[in-house]
């Protein structure tokens, strides 16, 4: 299906913050995403102690699961409310500190040190700030970024991953003329052109 009807759609940071404030977060999955469990072996590929990145993480429960397995988790989320809810809902003590390289950004880290969530725009991150990752769980990020920002997003993600990394990407398939998004429709051909 042609996704031209969505190409110019822009969802602002304020709109995302409002979704969290109003509790309009139907995209959050309390029980985790079934595809995460189905493809976890692909993500981990038999490796231990990985650094896994969660773009636009919200309060994804999978972050806690991976940390409990001994992996290091880094997420980025524009909503401070979402980040704080993640820690409180899992009874995880944390501390927060400013991120010197990013004006106004904060980093929330579990006191155990294995979960670090950056509260800022994803586009403010770089590998010099967060390092490189062995894996990515992109459950709702590519389909949430504004269509005009997809190339910028994909370039950033490619820059953040190690050469032998695993990238799990979930998209949704539907007729984009019937739904304005998000989640946005990203055809497979575009995924291939973005990520190779």
UniProtKB/TrEMBL annotation:
Give me the residues that bind S-adenosyl-L-methionine, please. Answer: 16-27, 56, 77, 121-122, 139
UniProt keywords, alphabetically: Cytoplasm, Methyltransferase, S-adenosyl-L-methionine, Transferase
Annotated catalysed reactions: S-adenosyl-L-methionine + a thiopurine = S-adenosyl-L-homocysteine + a thiopurine S-methylether
Give a yes or no for keyword Transferase in this entry: yes
User: Where found, per UniProt?
Assistant: Cytoplasm
- Cite a single GO BP annotation: methylation
**PROSITE patterns associated with the record:** SAM_MT_TPMT
Please verify whether the record's keywords include S-adenosyl-L-methionine: yes
Please report the name of this protein according to its UniProt entry. Answer: thiopurine S-methyltransferase
């Amino acid at each position: 299906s042609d996704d031209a009807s969505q190409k110019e759609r822009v969802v602002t940071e304020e709109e995302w913050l409002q979704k969290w404030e109003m509790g309009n977060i139907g995209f959050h999955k309390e029980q985790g995403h079934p595809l995460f469990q189905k493809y976890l072996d692909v993500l981990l590929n038999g490796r231990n102690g990985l650094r896994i990145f969660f773009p636009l993480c919200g309060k994804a429960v999978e972050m806690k699961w991976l940390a409990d397995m001994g992996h290091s988790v880094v997420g980025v989320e524009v909503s401070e409310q979402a980040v704080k809810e993640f820690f409180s809902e899992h009874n995880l003590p944390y501390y927060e500190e400013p991120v010197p390289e990013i004006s106004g950004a904060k980093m929330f880290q579990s006191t155990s040190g294995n979960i670090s969530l950056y509260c800022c725009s994803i586009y403010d991150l770089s590998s010099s700030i967060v390092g490189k990752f062995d894996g990515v769980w992109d459950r709702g990020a590519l389909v949430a970024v504004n269509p005009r920002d997809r190339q910028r997003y994909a370039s950033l993600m490619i820059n953040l991953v190690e050469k032998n990394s695993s990238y799990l990407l979930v998209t949704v398939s539907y007729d984009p003329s019937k739904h304005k998004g998000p989640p946005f429709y990203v055809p497979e051909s575009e995924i291939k052109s973005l990520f190779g």
